[in-house]
Amino acid sequence: MIVGIYTNDFALLNKITNKINDSKIKLRHIENLPIKAKDIDVLITKKRIRQCKIPQIQPGNLDILELRIRCEIYDCKNIIIGIDPGGMTGLSVIGANRILFMDNYKSIEDLANIVKSMNGEIGISSIKIGLGSPPERTRIIDSLREFSGIIQLVDEHNSGSGSHTKAATRIALREGEINEDKTYDPKPGEVAWIQKQSRRKSKGLVTIDKELAHKILIGQITMRDAIKQYTKKMKL
């Protein structure tokens, strides 16, 4: 696919060039208009050009520029997002019967910002979130409150192994249950598991209490902060 860049802003040109990692996307700097539609598949411009038959992109968040290019190429107006919660959260975007984008996020805030950019620049039909890792899942749902009407929860069991992005892809392709914004009530086994993980994370130094474990599971606190709080409390 050939993507033309029509701009005299060389700082922007450099940023765009650095963001394109897909070898299938061939960039071409366009200095003068008009150009023949058969020579360019997509045109990137700072401002929309009237009476131009070539699909155009006015980039916003450059981190999703490759996704926007693919959406224009495959004429995809609404996308499905799959999210695999965890310490490293996987994200996959499906549209036009293709995988259009995949990435991993350590920060839930970064993940939420990317999702918001995708909705603002492209449009999202549904967001499917795996049921695994309840603490991270809860924080992700909370960070995407504005999308509560299109969030679906997906059972990840028997989905196989692999990378976080592959798991996110499987989640995106599965049927989900509509999230009715129910209050999550951790089960005793989940609380016990978090307590066990706190001992492992602290290298055997402490096992946090049930109250802190419960707060972790409902996304009110991180494991790291819970261990710090419990350690401080034990020293009093």
Which features would summarize this protein structure in a list?
236 residues; alpha/beta; Nucleotidyltransferase, domain 5; 8 helices; 37% helix
Give a written overview of the molecule.
This protein has 8 helices and 10 strands. The strands form 2 sheets. A 6-stranded mixed beta sheet has the order 7-6-5-8-9-10. The chain has a 4-stranded parallel beta sheet with strand order 2-1-3-4, covered by helices on one side. It folds into 3 domains: 2-59, no CATH class; 79-178, Nucleotidyltransferase, domain 5, CATH 3.30.420; 188-235. α3 (108-121) packs across α4 (134-143) and α6 packs across α7. The chain has 236 residues and is an alpha/beta fold. The mean pLDDT is 90.
Helical segment tally?
A: 8
Give average pLDDT, whole number: 90
- How would you write the strand order of the largest sheet? 7-6-5-8-9-10
- Number of E-type strands: 10
CATH evolutionary superfamily of the largest domain: YqgF/RNase H-like domain
What is the radius of gyration? 22 Å
Which structural class is indicated by helix and strand composition? alpha/beta
* Strand percentage: 15-25%
Biggest sheet layout: 6 strands, mixed
CATH architecture of the largest domain: 2-Layer Sandwich
Report the span from N to C terminus: 64 Å
Q: What is the global morphology?
A: elongated
Encode the helix/strand succession as letters.
EHEEEHEEEHEHEHEHHH
| Number of spatially distinct domains | 3
Give the low-confidence spans.
Answer: none
The first-level CATH class of the largest domain is given as Alpha Beta
Could you say what the CATH topology of the largest domain is called? Nucleotidyltransferase, domain 5
Fraction of residues in H or I helices: 25-40%
